[in-house]
Write a structure and sequence with these properties.
five-stranded mixed beta sheet
Amino acid sequence: MANSHAKKRSMLFDEPVGRKRIVSLTPLIDVVFLLLIFFMLASTFMKTQTLTVITPAPDESEEVDTDRVVIELGIHTDGHLTIDGKTVIVSDLEDKLKARIKESPEAIVSILAEKDSEVQPLIWAVDAARRAGADTVSTSRVGSVK
């Protein structure tokens, strides 16, 4: 009798042969979405800095005051920069502009970007000119920089 009772009990806990258990992924997906929502709400978003650039139409270009020194900063299509025709690397750009502006505090920084040049070097150039202390920064798109 004890043997038959043990046999029945073991049959109750054994899985039926041929049937596989299917694991439901629904609770896992619910937890993942809850974590996603939590981290989205708990995170802080950086406020990006913007740079306002107003580009005039070709027929609205202004004459440059010729009494002031003009520092020409060239942006070439291959990404390299020049100050008055001399190649300069991006990391030295601000220091070179500071030195030139120290010589002529009223200088105008004229940024000449070649037609097919990237936008990022233009942003670096305008930012470096502002940090170097330039009062007037002008931008132009040209066919080629000398």
